Amino acid sequence: MVKKGYILLFFMLISFSAISQKLISYVTLNPSNAYIGQPVELKISVFTTTWFTAGIDVGNIQIDGALTVYFRSVSTNRDFGGVRYVGVDFLYNVFPTKEGVITIPSLSIDVESPEEGGYKGIKHIVKTKPKSINVKGVPLGYNPNNWLVATRLNISQKWSTSLKNVKVGDVIQRSIKRTAGGTLSEFIPETQWDSIDGISIYPKRAIVNTHKSKTAISSSRTEMVNYLFEKEGEIIIPSIEYLYWNSYSKKFYHKQIDSVIINVKPNADLAMLASIKKSLQKEQEEIVEEKKDSPFLILGLTIKEFAKYLILTIFVVVVIFFVWKKLRRIFIEKRAKRLQSEAYAYGKVTKAISSNNYINFIKQLNSWLQKLSQESMSFSEFTSKYGTDELTVVLNKMNEAYFKKPTQCDAKSFRELKVAMNKSRKNYFIHQKKSKDINRQSSWLNPTN
Question: What is the pTM for the complete model shown?
Fold first, then answer.
């Protein structure tokens, strides 16, 4: 009975906490329609009617078909239904990587917040509803290989040496750096190098960087290419045009590097041209081979790492399954044992008394007495041996009310009956304990051979 009281009190406290304290969480997107590579502002909001006693754990947000960048959290407050809430907004940028509908999954967020009038934080898990983004592909008429969404684009160019005295066999390195605002380096497209008559072109590995502050993001891509001049005369290196779309102004912008005219002078020593070309080709092959050997990733993990985590996950699931199976068996066994116990049978007796149902009380007595004593014992025998005087008085009073007079017993009689039954049951257990102690002493004083 004491355990039941604690359990009931526990659930009452939980119910009261849920009523007196309210938590709200939701996700907002701006915009909900975007192009590939266009940043979508993602805001995760969590509110409470009291305050948060610990930092909020939003967890790692994984979105299929998009890259996610976290910026910062901001304290805020807002009215819901005329009630003032305090909360925290978590600000992200979501960059779609494929066309179609991508979904921000439901998020489970761990929070700690005290109930109204309290001070100790209570742990809760709040969940947000899924949200979708409709992602549009590259507009018709525009090259997907030259598509970029950015707030700005700056371009700079460098040559490894002067272009005024170029001769056959010379190798000159060209560097083009693009810095784009409001995007990630993954979205800056590769430069498409045009073939040029009289020049062999050998692109090098690009250098990419992403820079993030609490409010903005930008990225850069630096590409290098080696030009090997193989023919004398006038050579025109064509212009390069870059395109980007500004999601704020809703306009397309063009950036261009002008063409360059180079007068290549003859070179009497052409024996070294073949070896230079061979060296550059070897370097190019190594770069291509490195790209081929780049590890295949699953959810950002190598195959080996993914397999390790998969095996670990399967092991944890198997362990949880067997533990749950064992706990379930123990629970079923304990429940079956409890249903056959004297305490459970007596609980039905007291329940009948508490509901002021005398007829049901009489019915439950027989089942309880069978669980109470292994020997067959009637309620009259129980009352005569272990019952208190109060029990005898109240039983006579209630029997007379039910079977001799057409009246019902009042609630006071049922309260008296419950008190008298509890005392009588206690007398029975005291008597049984004394009998066991006497038997134990007798066996010790008169040991058998």
Answer: 0.57
